[in-house]
Amino acid sequence: MILQPHGGVLQDLVLRDAGIKQRLINEIASEGYKKYILTDRQLCDLELILNGGFSPLTGFLNEDDYNSVVNHMRLASVKNEEGRGLLWPIPITLDVDESFAKTVKVGEKLVLTDLRDDNSLALLTIESIYKPNKQLEAEKVFRGDPEHPAVKYLFNTAGDIYIGGSIQGLSFPKHYDYVEIRTNPTELREQFQKAGWNTGNHKTVAFQTRNPMHRAHRELTIRAAKDLGEDGHILIHPVVGLTKPGDIDHHTRVKVYKQILKKFPENLANLSLLPLAMRMGGDKEALWHALIRQNYGVDHFIVGRDHAGPGKNSQGVDFYGPYDAQDLLDSVKDELPITIVPFRMVTYLPEEDRYAPIDTIDLKTTKTANISGTELRQKLRDGSEIPEWFSYPEVVQILRSTNPPRKQQGFVIIFNNGKGLKQSDYISFGFQSVLNELNSNRRITKLVDNNDPFIINELVKAGSGVLVLSSNIDEITTTVGASNSVVVNVDEKEDKENHFNLNSNERDFSEFIATVIDYLRKQDFL
């Protein structure tokens, strides 16, 4: 039997409200309700509210639920059989700026629209308008490190006021890519039922990923399915919403997943895309992921080392411990119908040409081989061979097409004009001349009145050398990637490898330009 959704009811709001959709559309037209254009993250959140992926939620958290989730990891408005608040570890909030918040009142209705096409997706009835304690949210939910991606988002991007309320569904956000595998919980449950998965002795284990998959991932998921018995199945359920800045784009990854799916035994694995905006919240995010998979109809979920962790901060310290996620999930296992499957790391045995779980071999006497993520990126960067035991040739070909060798990659030089000093402008002309002289196959583009990170990133991805005057350093380097960015500061001390400081009294820039050019050569751009 397929597991019940979290809270007992799959809250597919579009399906629920299909019978009153036209009435809602007419009401919106006649009443002239205020519209709110959703951000990228809010759009991902709304889609999972609408399709039931976030069951039991039926809207964005009101103040009582928000405070309960932040402080206790539980909802205030929905109780379990023991009368305790239902588990929910991540606050799902509609953040707006103060100026917008002043234009709406509790009891009013708000039309939530898609930023891409202005399509009306849902009607929200406002239940509360509140100012959150962001510092408390950062500490309680994400442990408070200011370098954590979710904490940065909270303080640098999110609005200062939250609006909570229930939602009536109109339509899902429109997708034009990979439509056939963007299955929502209702559809996936129907697929499982039709295929006989999760019925009788059949069980399904979900594998979460935001990275490309290689041979080791195939091995570990097949082993996880076999551990469930001869009727075990695999749901490859990658995130294609928002992930960690700098991650490989979802188009490249989906092409990889489609190729690697062909390498599984027939009828063992299925691929479905999850439009989730990750927070990189470690242990609490792992619990969130498990609840989402339960809503999608899965009864087992693989949780690995440092699940959903963002890695290390600038001091080299991990944001989360390697087993924090597994420990948290174990502490609430009595409330989880879904079974957690600890990730068993596998390694390649070159003398036997096979993979094996690392905990089943004697590392002192057995020769093993592995390629780390850093080593893989280096091999892609310099065009060196990636062995077939590590990844399939079809996968490597896809990765090479979107990750060319460094000499073919673009870069951006950001001239920090935050202090309004003319040196930033003057020196950019010098760089433009020198780079044009040195490059015969690379276009050098100087942006004059445009420092949009998206446009800059598109130019860099196309292989251009981009020169831009901007004070928007962090957003540009985050979007483009620090490894493809150089920052020129004036009268500032920076100890980062890709930051260079120019003295404002300098009048001859030749030596300074030569220093930066030498850095670009060492990075294999020139």
From TrEMBL:
Gene Ontology cellular-component annotations: cytoplasm
Top-level division of the source organism's lineage: Eukaryota
Domain ATP-sulfurylase PUA-like: 4-170
Pathway(s) it belongs to: Sulfur metabolism
UniProt domain Sulphate adenylyltransferase catalytic: residue ranges: 180-401
Any one Gene Ontology BP term: sulfate assimilation, phosphoadenylyl sulfate reduction by phosphoadenylyl-sulfate reductase (thioredoxin)
Keywords (A to Z) from UniProt: ATP-binding, Nucleotide-binding, Nucleotidyltransferase, Transferase
GO MF annotations in UniProt: ATP binding; sulfate adenylyltransferase (ATP) activity
Residue runs in coiled coils: none
EC number: 2.7.7.4
Pfam families the record matches: ATP-sulfurylase, PUA_2
EC class (word): transferase
Subunit field text: Homohexamer. Dimer of trimers.
Protein known as: sulfate adenylyltransferase
